[in-house]
Give the backbone structure.
Amino acid sequence: TERTLVLIKPDGVARGLVGEIISRIERKGLRIVALDLRTATDEVARGHYAEHEDKPFFGSLLEFITSGPLVAAVLEGPRAIAAFRQLAGGTDPVEKAATGSIRADLALETQNNLVHGSDSPESAQREIALWFPGLT
Ligand code: ATP
């Protein structure tokens, strides 16, 4: 079994899609280990997106991710990391996300793409420690 860190980003909370997204997670069979509504601090946001700090969209991404409440969660299950990324779909909701995925079905823009999921076991461990320091 494996764990992954998932965010329902501020656009998902603002649009009232928390239930829809959690419902898809539960129907897939992933178990919710931790779940919390909070507004990300600048410090946590910078830590979370450290790999993107040299990208042109970094400033905008930080502003977006700290713009309002988001839902942070830890999910558990067999191949949880890949399973959630399949549910989410590719980063660009129109050009990359597969039909039937959260992003393809519910989002239009690459930045405001509703969800985040860890992309590797190393990222998952780092991100779970960042968002839920008490959990492990
Ligand atoms: P996440 O890490 O949030 O699951 P991802 O792994 O699909 O997304 P990354 O390439 O790691 O995508 O980008 C992280 C986030 O930065 C994206 O989810 C999106 O919100 C934003 N982003 C990525 N590329 C762009 C871009 N070209 N313009 C604006 N925002 C972008």
Notes: Residues 18-28 form the longest helix (11 residues). The longest strand covers residues 31-38.
